[in-house]
């Protein structure tokens, strides 16, 4: 397997290329190394390569890696989160990317010791297999979070369909950006919504061109071990 350092160098060059096209500062983009397919050792390699944001999509995977790595990393929970798992991870995660229902918000509100940075997950494409709120549900949902003192809606997150149809992907990301602007216009104190978590190995350059501030990279950065 290619070293994480080499993969990261390629990705950083690609980020620079995408940023140049749209006049963005590469420093405004944070790379999350998605370590769900790889070992603790490989996750540590990401840290050595200077990538300190790590993402896991399962509670057990997160806990296992957290135990080995701890607060040397910034932890992102990026997968579907069952309410009963909140308690186990809440004091370990820095960001939750998958807030998609009120019952989950209530559990986070109850368990958190301090405000938790959350992304509201949106199913922009309407694909049946994807989690997240429909576009129409996003604004009313965030309105309902107004009184939640332990939830800060830092941004919106989406997973685009796996396809090489570039115009379609671009359209997905653009719609998330437009929704973000509508959330910001609400002026809700705990929903600044300054961030966009979008772009994976297959589509991150397009996502950056459309305004991503967090990209979530598994295969292209740390690879896949099983
Ligand atoms: C697995 C996963 C990723 C990373 O996927 P790659 O295509 O391997 O980069 C990103 N986001 C989420 C939510 C994931 O589950």
UniProtKB/TrEMBL annotation:
SUPFAM superfamilies: PLP-binding barrel (SSF51419)
Obligatory cofactor(s): pyridoxal 5'-phosphate
One Pfam family from the record: Ala_racemase_N
PROSITE patterns hit by this protein: UPF0001
GO molecular function: pyridoxal phosphate binding
Residues modified as N6-(pyridoxal phosphate)lysine: 36
InterPro entries the UniProt entry points to: Ala_racemase_N, PLP-binding_barrel, PyrdxlP_homeostasis
Domain Alanine racemase N-terminal, chain residue ranges per copy: 11-224
Keyword Oxidoreductase belongs to the record: no
Keyword field: Pyridoxal phosphate
Record-given protein name: Pyridoxal phosphate homeostasis protein
Family stated for the protein in its record: Belongs to the pyridoxal phosphate-binding protein YggS/PROSC family.
NCBIfam families: YggS family pyridoxal phosphate-dependent enzyme
Source species: Anoxybacteroides rupiense
Keyword Ribosomal protein among UniProt keywords: no
Its job: Pyridoxal 5'-phosphate (PLP)-binding protein, which is involved in PLP homeostasis.
